């Protein structure tokens, strides 16, 4: 009997260590089920079978050229070459460590699902498919990057997303195929309309319920293999104050929480500049008792209010970054202790007044109340120009800055859609569910579909 030489190529660090004899298993299956008795089978019969019928197993692939073989090896497959055969067999054997689903890190949940996406794309797709069992759910895939070869997927509900939005998205995402995409956030610059706007034009989530709600609301979500974050587009300004958890509570409480977020946005953006304008230009607007208390605390402070605010804001931002970069067990402790020590030392050394410390602390706390971290970053950026305008022109400067921000928001678009949709142009039906949470019985299809409650001719309510 002639011996047929064959060899296999694989990365030992990518495949299952106890399942390397794929050729033997494949030949045994072919002999017993496909070709015939083992005594009459030759190697030529096996090769002829793969040539004519292809690979019948879902984990086996017939490779036509060397490029396919190299890609299969890099994908974690065992590739087997036969002597005098210009093709090869690839066996799926990828086995790398995967993080188990846990509590969402950036979006902790008090009530509702306590599961998050992980870095495995197939698993994330399976979670979405299991929660949204609709034949209209469409998914498209592509490979990005010549070196990293990252698999990227985007999905949407056919008939729910606007056709012009989907077309615009596909035109932009087609430009990404050669870029090295290591995380979903790498795609934000390609999808957003304005690269230099401080306001985010996409949202991120680690929660499956948020992703499902976005799909039902006509959004497009993007997933990248190796990234636990899901990118949601197009973004809408009011949606950055909404969480899927709002619909897990009773309407009264959820509406109150949402209005508190709006107030937190205003405080985080305008509180330091308002204090600077009142103390420097409009002291007559402050009640006399409060004004005397502020003047008493500022006695001996060698800096004007703007310099004092900049110093305290710098210290606060420094502590914030230190708390994020340090290991979690000590990060929060360092932030709290550092804030207490620096604040007390600044007051005793008369670098800052107690009122300014309170203003900066309230501003920081208000920025933490926003659900989306990238919106909080936008506020941190815009806060400083408003402080300079307030120090220069007082209340007029704040008004000028606010008008400029509003004009920018009014002209900003996300995937061609107005960023201030439901506010401009005004849509009362959409706006009423954006500022307050409507009862679930008044929503027809999804938590944020904005469809109003309907009645049958007999007066019976239908969903």
From TrEMBL:
One of its GO terms (biological process) is spore germination. The keyword Protein biosynthesis does not apply. Keywords: Membrane. It comes from the Bacteria. InterPro entries: Spore_Ger, UPF0353/GerABKA_families. GO terms for cellular component: membrane. Belongs to the GerABKA family. This is Uncharacterized protein. It comes from Paenibacillus baekrokdamisoli.
